Amino acid sequence: MTETGSISIHTENIFPIIKKFLYSDHEIFLRELVSNAVDATQKLQSLARQGEFQGELGELKVRVTVDRDARKITVSDHGLGMTGEEIKKYINQIAFSGATEFVEKYKEKDQQAKDQIIGQFGLGFYSAFMVAREVEIWSKSYKEDAATAHWTCDGSTQFTLDEYTEGVHVKAERGTDVVLHVAEDSDEFLEEARLRGILEKYCRFLPVPIEFEGQLVNDTTPIWTKQPADLTDEDYQKFYRELYPMSMEEPLFWIHLNVDYPFNLTGILYFPKVKDELQFQRNKIQLYSRQVFITDEVKDVVPEFLMLLQGVIDSPDIPLNVSRSFLQADANVRKINTYITRKVADKLGELFRKDRVGYEEKWNDIGLFVKYGMLSDDKFYERAKDFALLKSVDGKLYTITEYQEHVQANQKDKTDNTVLLYTTDPEAQHGFVAAAQARGYDVLVFDQVLDPHFIGLLEQKLEKTTFKRVDSATVGQLIEKEETTESVLSEDDQKKLEEVVTAAISDPAMHVKVAALSPQDAPVVITRNEFMRRMKDMQRTGGGGGMQMFGSLPDSYDVTVNANSPLASKMLADNGSTVAKQAFDLALLAQGLLKGEALTQFVKRSTELL
Predict the structure, then answer these.
(1) 31 annotated as ligand-binding
(2) Which residues bind ATP (predicted)?
(3) Res 13 pLDDT > 70
(4) Is 98 annotated as ligand-binding?
(5) Selected residue with higher pLDDT from 328 and 369
(6) How far is the C-alpha of 501 from the C-alpha of 317, rounded, in Å?
(7) Does 352 appear as a known binding residue?
(8) Of 103, 329, 562, 607, which has the maximum CB count within 10 A?
């Protein structure tokens, strides 16, 4: 007997919506159909555990086949199957989820079933019509003496349903075959390579074996589903290579996530070596729901800075829309976000405490990540401040607290602020570093792309602490003390000296001033205002808002002439024409600012003076 009827829908013209708008990517159809087949298999396993099915389970495998000539794709399972009445209930009533009903019915009896059932949306089956002009279902229920049900629909709201108890149409075994008659505009999905790629992308870790053209395409027990105690380092490293076969380097270390309250979350996060560049690699963490690949766009689940990590997150508690492609930020997502951040901080803290030497060896590779986290997440800052490290020019590494204690005796200024000196390029700024060290000061190295922002953060967080780059002032002015140095020149001579040097260099970007420095200091020192230089650096590395205005301002420099230098009297004696120019060029050279024709003239003049 053939039954015909109309599919019960609650939205007019649902099929055009499904085909064009509901799913952002047509390849999703295969994931949905295979997931449904896995559900049917796991439901049968649940019934067997409960004693409601006592027959032979047999080989529980999902098979995907393609017949290019007949333009057919078939997804077959050996699960619990459906009767004609169940097809009418679960297929004809769009958005009624059989999986949801099953979970509700058995959740008290079989927690494993609740944890495993994938389909929660009801609309997944209809994604088939994105690529098919007609869809058939052949199904035989596990129930005793069940007929073979045959349902067909051409993409309209009309369907036909037949049931057979004898003849050639009777299925020999329980289970369901979904047959897609591929539309003319979807030829790509008749290509074996295309289908294999989709299966490997979305189904490679499904919990039931998936066979495509005679070959298994999935690992049913990926390592994130196992207990950490049962795994070795080699297991984690091998899995990393499976996830990222093109990676040339091993991960530094990893975190195994495993929590079942107040939400469910498993996964493995790997720490790769993070390169010092602004364009961090994203989309390296893969999101799964019950071992079904969902997306690698995890920004709503994972904090921004943690997207520098790699690996897998699997959670049935992450809410998804019907396409399973976009995450909705709700309470569970926020809890997961917070949990992952805490676990990462705990792991880093544990590594630091248990093996500081090993942690320090990794600092060059993880330092950028830690700083990014501290800048991005205040809670992470509070945890990370105890294991974030500062590097001195001599190569020693200190925690923030250790370094403050290390320098506070010698690097407090007259207002009792601790001044932390740093260089962004120890070689280029070697002269300034050496001058600071000669005074007994220590100098930090801040040469990473985020360091201008990180310095600003530390100044906000640390009380009575300020940072100065070693070339931002003369060495005597970097850390201002109570004692002062008297000038050997009269006020008139100091004024004249300023005029002589200004005339000799003739550059409006250079602001000349005369100061009483140590006779051992350089005759002329060129520095750049710390605030302006730092604002420009931050603007270049992504600072927003008001920092844009600093980026557009012209560069300006302070030229400090040492009144107590022996060359000061020589500059005054010959009116500065040669000596002042030579001393100024030496200062430019120390800052790496002497280039082109000016450098050529300096070399020629130096030869003549010799």
Answers:
(1) no
(2) 32, 36, 77, 82, 97-98, 120-125, 176, 324
(3) no
(4) yes
(5) 369
(6) 71
(7) no
(8) 562
Q: Residue 118: which pLDDT band, with cuts at 50, 70 and 90?
A: very low
Other beta carbons within 10 Å of 275: 12
The CATH number assigned to the domain with range 389-478 reads 3.40.50.11260
pLDDT in tens, 502-552: 888 878 888 888 888 888 888 888 887 767 676 766 665 555 544 454 445
Residue 605 annotated as binding site: no
What is the fold, at CATH topology level, of the domain defined by 223-353?
Ribosomal Protein S5; domain 2 (3.30.230)
Task: Provide the β-strand partners of residue 525.
Answer: 560
The three-class DSSP label of residue 47 is helix
Q: Is position 55 annotated in a ligand binding site?
A: no
On whether 307 is known to bind a ligand per the annotation, the reply is: no
Q: Name the CATH architecture for the domain at 2-213.
A: 2-Layer Sandwich (3.30)
Residue 472 annotated as part of some ligand binding site? no
The rounded distance, in Å, linking the Cα atoms of 356 and 334 is 32
194 is in an annotated binding site: no
Minimal CA–CA distance to 438: which of 534, 329, 520? 520
Interatomic CA distance for residues 423 and 5, integer angstroms? 78
- Taking the C-alpha atoms of residue 340 and residue 306, their distance in angstroms, rounded to an integer, is 9
Distance CA 66, CA 13 (A): 30
Do 307 and 280 meet the contact criterion of CB atoms below 8 Å apart?
yes
Whole-prediction pTM: 0.77
Does the annotation place 258 within a ligand binding site?
Answer: no
C-beta separation of 123 from 45 below 8 A: no
